[in-house]
Amino acid sequence: MQKKVIVQAIALLGCVGWSQAAFAADEANVERVVITGSNLKRTATENPSVVQVLTKKDIEHTGAVSVADLIAKVPALGSNNQVDARDGGFSKGLATASLRGLGSASTLILINGRRMSPAAYADPNAGQSTQYDLNSIPLSALERVEILKDGASAVYGSDAIGGVINFITKSNYKGGELTLQASRNQDNAFGRSGLNGVVGFGDLEENHYNAFVAFDVSQRDRTLLKDAKSSQVEQSRIMDGRLSSFYSGISGYPVFYKESKLGSGSFNKYVSADLGCNPADIRTGSTALVPMRSNDPLIGNKFCNYDGWQYEDAEGKNRSGNLLARAEFKLGADLKAFTEAAYSQSELFYDGVSRSMTGRSLTTVFPKDGAGTPFRPVLGVDHPDNPTRGTANPVPVAVAYRFVNAPGGSSNENKATRLLAGLQGTNYGWDWDSALLYNESKRHQLSNGFLYLPIVQTLMTQNVPLATIASTPGVTRNVTLDGKSSITQWDLKGSTEFGQLPGGALGLAVGTEVKQEKMNIVPDPLTVDGKIIGLVNTYSDAKRNVRSAFVELRTPFFKSFEMDFAGRYDKYDGFKSHFTPKVGAKWDVTPTFALRSTYSEGFRAPSLTQMVNGGTQYFVNNFEDKLRCNKPGSDSTDCAKSLSGIAAANKELEPETARSFTAGLIFSPTSSIDILVDYYTIRKDKEVDLLPNTAVVDNPKYADLVKRDQNPGTWLVDANGKPIPNTGPLISIATPYVNAGGTRTSGVDLELDVRNSLGDLGKLSSRLNYTYVFDYKKAAVVGDPMFDLVGTNGAISNDTTSVGELPRVRATLSTTWSYQAHNLTANVNYVSSLSMMARYSTQDDGTVGPYEQPFCQYGRPGVNPQYTKFYPDCEVHSWTTVDLAYAYSGFKNTVLSFNVANLFDSKAPYDPSYATAGYNTALHNARGRYFTVKANYKF
């Protein structure tokens, strides 16, 4: 039987599969290389794991303007990738990846096969505790991207449960090139421009060295939300009030409220408002002012509107630069030295509304340590601004006021440094590789215009007039948050072949790693001391050592059948040692048909911010308090509550565990067609996550973690008019990190590659990448039943989870026609719909179960009464876009290209859970028809 080998171009062209014509080739002519997912050199289809390859040509055809833009087009990625489009959240300024929807903490990012440092962020959201910033990787330096879509903890370590994305840079590059590009949409918005280049010199064989330097500088313009026109603007205006004539009743002209009953603590009766604003800004409260509720005290009363829409960004301003250098030195026939150095810096600027305060509800100002300070701006009867002062019935009044002279918004600066030096050689039949790596990430965040408690408090403690306080220097402060994360790692690995089986020599790889992880996050001293209103502390001061050893064995039992066995031993400080196995098999049934499968186990140690000397305080906005919302005696704020929370580190956490299985086939019926079908299933247990907000508030067994207003005057009353204990407005909650329930997900990937020769008319090639998710089952707390959330917004379908959007289908279809100097590519991108039906929640007895009748979460009268009129199917619609790219290489050393993303200006579907933006910023965008021109010159 002839030796079976893969098409030589397979690894570089990304056409994972092989053809009959290839089998005539001599195996000796096919170079074996290390492919992501293994430490053994092999040809691409000897690998039983599922690896998708994006070549440099693929990257160019997508029209991607950044690494984050490129990865967002991969169907196997989930929707909970972080995108730095808008201000807000714990991860602003970052762009991350999430394979299989399992979060960035389960998706390992590598550069040339070695890990990068996590960003210096502490995001408490599910699956985001470890985040790798894709913005720090220069697109211009990449030769290809390899995406391993099965578990790889046995090969790379604990955070490769969902898969691995390996960014591979150029090697032995000679010459130089420059690329200039500019992008913007048809409305001259979302502007981007950039210059990147690479220059290399020396030949490894002739000169015994090679070095190259790649750089990438770019800038992104600020785009206002009103300029994000390729979305359902009119629907958003009607349902959410987006870009309407009403933004907020809290402005630079105060509004005053009194208690419904003196001493009750419930300030829900309108008294008066300062109407000294421009008459055009005066509004009368009405449900027509969406999203004002019918029980809002402003209904029927006048107030000055604050126009905050002018400060809402669709995309913040950005400046970034990346530099990467790599050098290789041939020290002898069998010895080579290599070194890498990289530096990146990104500055992001976000506008934002001025800070405000309101006495309608009680809030807490949190120091880093110790008890919080309650805060509520209530003016006593003698206060000069109290409109009831001097009347027959003076009463305390709560004031709502915005400090409009202090700008809001923030800026974020991220810096990353990477240094690598190593040796590579061949001795005694072993190919070996050893290197020392240092990678650090720094972050500096500046948040503008936060209220300084000691000055604001004098409003109540010293009866200082509001106007005096607003004009007092220092009443608002710009506060900082600094962080540094680093990894120092030494590794040694080697591979060899030995013995002989019927299918060939056995392959063996062994190695060891020692690394130290550090995470240091330092909040502003004023925040630490509890002197800043409306801002919480994020902090960490932790490090740990990790020692690892791994082994991998390839056993070609027959010419047509081989198996791989891998195992990894990891010892994390504070945990018992853990062994992680993986086994894979591949069977070439015929020269054109093969079966492959893998089984792997995994574990992920909790991140440093989750368990060692750290924690995150946070605010929850628009939280629906089911106990009080729309109940007699409640307030409109109970249906859209702002409250504080604490995500506390837990030193008792155990590692997550995982099991994954893949099974697939590769079929090449002709020399021009490759078909790949791969089934996957992943099971995660003991997931480290916060107790969900809703589960804590609604479940009686967590009552000690919930703080409510204890003033009986704020409590709800029963049918006899008696106050119901502990039913006051929410103030704060505690959601510690726990080993929560688990996740089960399964699905199938389809890749179809067709290549056609058109004779004198050139070549035509097409590729389909399609991911279908069968299920995504989640239990937020150990013991809870698992409910399938796929095809939904998970946190709406089951509000005891914090899972985000889970589309069932994502797909891309790409067709390229190459003719002489012309290259034309069309891409079709598809994201399926999302149900917004609420199906599961905490029951009265504290268990989680289904509602008697599922309902449309945003279609209820008290939430978004217009929603079901527009969307009777209660879903975010599917989204299909078409991209077109053209490249001309007819000029000497020059390639000119033109790309149109979203050629037909398909509008981003309306998503009610993104009320401010009006669309899901993780799955869709409102750039509309988007043009990119690019010129590349090689020298």
UniProtKB/TrEMBL annotation:
One Pfam family this sequence matches: TonB_dep_Rec_b-barrel
Stretch forming the signal peptide: 1-24
Annotated ranges, domain TonB-dependent receptor plug: 45-164
GO cellular component, as recorded: cell outer membrane
Membrane topology: Multi-pass membrane protein
Transmembrane segments: none
Keywords: Cell outer membrane, Membrane, Receptor, Signal, TonB box, Transmembrane, Transmembrane beta strand, Transport
Span of domain TonB-dependent receptor-like beta-barrel: 390-903
Domain of life: Bacteria
Subcellular location: Cell outer membrane
Family membership noted in the UniProt record: Belongs to the TonB-dependent receptor family.
Protein name: TonB-dependent receptor
